[in-house]
Design brief:
Strand content: under 5%
Transmembrane segments: 95-114
Protein name: DUF2956 domain-containing protein
Number of helices: 4
Keywords: Membrane, Transmembrane, Transmembrane helix
Largest sheet: none
Order of helices and strands: HHHH
Shape: flat
Radius of gyration: 30 Å
Structural class: mainly alpha
Distance between the termini: 96 Å
Region (Disordered): 49-82
Organism: Photobacterium aquimaris
Length: 118
């Protein structure tokens, strides 16, 4: 069985937007055919972007639905799934800010000690 690839025509507003962008970036001496080819490339890019956004939206909806279903399950099952889904996150701080803070406090201390004795 062969799969037939469905060729959809881009929406009119996508075509208009692509042509507007192509004309806005048109160089001097560029022919209408070249501008049209650029507009087609932009149009394909817009369509690809829209497809990616639709796929991301579907994935978000699946996650929302899955999360809603896990809330509706019993508390024991929900607790075990959330414990498995969210491993312990360990934040590691950089040493530089703490070192600067420590050195500055030592400096302030030495300053006060030496200015009081003079």
């Amino acid at each position: 069985m062969t799969t037939i690839k469905k060729h959809t025509t881009p929406s009119a507003e996508t075509q208009i937007e692509a042509l507007r962008v192509a004309k806005a970036t048109q160089k001097e001496g560029q022919t209408k055919e070249q501008t049209k080819l650029i507009a087609q490339g932009i149009q394909k890019g817009i369509e690809q972007y829209k497809k990616q956004q639709k796929a991301k939206a579907r994935e978000r909806d699946k996650l929302k639905k899955k999360h809603a279903q896990s809330k509706n399950t019993s508390p024991e099952i929900a607790a075990t799934t959330t414990a498995n889904a969210n491993p312990n996150i360990i934040y590691k701080q950089h040493w530089l800010p703490w070192t600067i803070t420590l050195v500055s406090w030592i400096g302030f201390g030495l300053y006060f000690v030496y200015t009081r004795t003079l």
